[in-house]
């Protein structure tokens, strides 16, 4: 009997306040969608880090005949200097950091340059003798590239030491700032959602103050009076979570995987599975905000 009464009150409340319910749904959709994008941005940054850091190398470029670096003042690298560099790369002190070492000759560097810039006029103006020899070092932990870099920087026979981490660190710093911006925007919209839900519930309670007064007179508990209002807001939030989840999955499937991943193939991207794993969190956040906002709003505005 009580359950049926609560259901009837919810139906009546939603029918009477359809405009308010729709506004709660819409603001919930926007706020939860932005929250989902924040989660997705976090996953994307982690995915890009896994992709790129597994491919990071430290490149030790050796002095050539035309090198102008201070460490190349004595001319091109000698065989003895090469042997010492190779020995240091294989030394026990660097074994915890070095996974594998490749030596790239001038001809190999030239062939790779020609392949990379085959459609550019640059490839026609470079000879094999102009290309530097180098050691390419794969790391066990790419984030520790400075340990290897510091050992060989400014060493006689070494023109320069470069690591892709120097570029990647700046890239991921930018991505982290964008991710933080997405989270801040999501937080603002969630705050708007909380305020709207609380205001909607207060107005609903005010328009039905006569019914709640009668319920209080016949001995209904505070929780029993509040329950229909709380459930109304949670139903609206659940509808908003469904729509926000659908929008997040659609964006991931059609925009990220369907367009972005096909046009920009330099890294991996999040997929529908990542979006689906975020969906439960959207429901938890949406229902939690709606329920708590309604409960706190009713503590003050449902007194009769």
Structure, explained:
The chain has 304 residues and is α+β, with helices and mostly antiparallel strands. It folds into two domains: 184 residues, no CATH class; 108 residues, 2-Layer Sandwich (Alpha-Beta Plaits). Helix content is 67%, strand content 8%. Helix 1 packs across helix 8. The two termini are 24 Å apart. The mean pLDDT is 81. Its main location: membrane. This is Cell division protein FtsX. It is found in: Cell membrane.
List the helices and strands and how they pair.
Blueprint: H1 2-16, H2 18-53, E1 57-62, H3 79-89, E2 98-104, H4 106-116, E3 134-139, H5 145-152, E4 158-163, H6 165-207, H7 209-217, H8 222-263, H9 272-301
Antiparallel strand pairs: 1-3, 1-4, 2-3
A few lines on this structure:
The protein has 304 residues and is of the alpha+beta class.
Keywords:
single chain, 304 residues, alpha+beta, Alpha-Beta Plaits, 2 domains, four-stranded antiparallel beta sheet, elongated, transmembrane, cell membrane, cell cycle, FtsX, ABC3_permease_C
Q: Percent range for helical residues?
A: 55-70%
SS-based class:
alpha+beta
Largest sheet: 4 strands, antiparallel
Number of domains: 2
Query: How many strand units?
Result: 4
How many DSSP helices? Answer: 9
**How large a portion of the residues is in β-strands, by DSSP E?**
5-15%
Low-confidence stretches: none
